[in-house]
Amino acid sequence: MTAGKWLLPAQPDPPYFADIVPLEFLMSYSLPSLTPETLASLPSPAYVIFRDRLIQNLESMIQVAKDPSRLRPHCKTHKMSRVIEMWVERGVTKHKAATIAECEMCAAAGAEDVLLAYNPVGPNVDRLISLARTYPNCRFSATTDDARPLQVLSAAAAQAGVTIGIWLDVNVGMDRTGMTPETPGAAQLYHSVSSLPGLEPAGFHVYDGHQRQGDLMERRAAVSAEWTRVLTLRSQVESLGTAVPAFACGGTPTFPCYAAMSDPAIQLCPGTSVLSDCGYGTAFPDLPFAPAAAILTRVVSRPATDRMTLDLGNKAVAADPPKGARVVFPDIPEAVQDIHSEEHLVLVTAAAENYAPGDALLAVPVHVCPTSALYDRAAIADNGKISEYWEITSRNRRISI
Ligand SMILES: Cc1ncc(COP(=O)(O)O)c(C=O)c1O
After folding, report:
1. Is the terminal CB of the chain with fewer CB neighbours within 10 Å at N or C?
2. Is 242 in the pocket of ligand 1 (CB under 6 A)?
């Protein structure tokens, strides 16, 4: 095949889900059911959260952490004020966010300490300062890996009379942002925060999204290796005379690894585990979380005997997993996800003959975090019925600041 019209290299056909994951595994996903009346009345596609599952995941996270004070969960998965309130009710007051809107949502919902795990640059510097002024009872902090934006943030914070905590973003191998522990100047950059007006050293931010070992023991060994490097950097910083009061560590896959470590300065930052999804569920079977979110979709067409088309396009479910593996249908796990366009998902399955246009199905997203951001509200299911709707508060980039 020659290069396409956009001069992209030819791509091989993507694998289908059943080629990647054993069918028996896909069949193991199950969801609580919805009553026939609920299925009939919810417009599709609808984002549904099963309250009991969500609560179970929150409780399991606290259990893994051993204490709510060790948690600093990332809110980017759900983006919902109501979930932050549920955390605060359970004593989890420190939170992590990726956008200014998520920070605002956390502070407005009662968080006492919000880490913007993103380097503030450009006009977002002033937005962070506005947040600190608007919510004086909440401590705000942000990551850094470069002296220049730090100077800008320092000047803005000092002028506004607020203090922003600064975490050195430590790159332990993901190579997305940050400085490796061995980078010359990493210790010096963190140490410099102590003399910048308006800023204070908060600790090290250690996110390791590259650690994807399916075997928990192998993941633990990889985390131990990265931790040794982090501690070497801490010693260097301390010898310069600056303390490292906390470490904001890991995501969901390495959550149990960091939770098993005893350093009281470690904060645990899983996000996905709150709702969980089929991506992590499949890759990390040791994790004690069950999918709490699903999408109600309907058959809109039966274009051939073995085909059925659903209103579950790539504007209704995250499309960052490979084509063919973006959702799991617990009722028909073997269905091949063939065409996925903006508003349509075409399934190829012998089971199509059992379905007619209008029939409803539940689908579990493979990647729940970007899926949440596609909806403005979630339907909350209790005992098969929708009891209320929760706003996806920070799905937009701006709330009020
Ligand atoms: C900086 C940072 N911290 C924490 C998390 C949470 O990780 P997970 O989605 O594995 O729970 C993420 C996820 O993208 C992240 O980017």
Report:
1. N
2. no
Cα–Cα distance for residue pair 151/148, rounded to 1 Å: 5
Residue among 118, 217, 361, 137 nearest 128 (CA): 118
Query: Is the shortest distance between the CB of 250 and ligand 1 below 6 Å?
Result: no
Which residues, given as ranges, of the chain have pLDDT below 50?
A: 1-5, 8, 11
Distances in Å between the Cα of 101 and the Cα atoms of 130, 235, 334 are 12, 35, 39
For position 4, what pLDDT does the model report?
A: 41
pLDDT score, position 13: 56
Question: How far are the Cα atoms of 1, 95, 276 from residue 260, in angstroms, in the given order?
Answer: 51, 20, 21
* 72, 50 Cβ separation under 8 angstroms: no
- The tokens for 45 are 């596609």
Out of 58, 72, 74, give the residue to mutate to test ligand 1, the one with the largest number of ligand atoms within 8 Å of its CB: 74
Which protein residue has the closest C-alpha to ligand 1 atom 5?
A: 251
Express each pLDDT in 240-285 by its tens digit.
999 999 999 999 999 999 999 999 999 999 999 999 999 998 899 9
54 lines ligand 1 (CB under 6 A): no
User: What is the atom index within ligand 1 of the atom nearest the CA of 369?
Assistant: 9
Q: Measure 197 CA to ligand 1 centroid, in angstroms.
A: 30
**Distances 136 to 81, 106, 118, 253, 263 between C-alpha atoms, Å:** 19, 13, 21, 34, 30
Interior angle at CA 215, CA 214 and CA 218, nearest 5: 115
The residue type of 146 is D
Predicted confidence at residue 29, as pLDDT, reads 84
Which amino acid residue places its CA nearest to atom 4 of ligand 1? 251
**Integer-rounded Cα radius of gyration of the chain:** 23
The amino acid that residue 83 corresponds to is V
Residue 105 CB-density burial (10 A; 0-12 exposed, 13-18 middle, 19+ buried): buried
Q: What is the pLDDT of residue 3?
A: 40
pLDDT of residue 331: 94
Q: Compute, in angstroms, the gap from residue 250 CA to the centroid of ligand 1.
A: 7
Q: How far is the CA of 130 from the centre of ligand 1 (A)?
A: 25
Q: How far is the CA of 110 from the centre of ligand 1 (A)?
A: 21
What's the pLDDT at 16?
Answer: 62
Ordered by where they begin, the domains of the chain are: 17-49+287-391 (2.40.37.20), 72-269 (3.20.20.10)
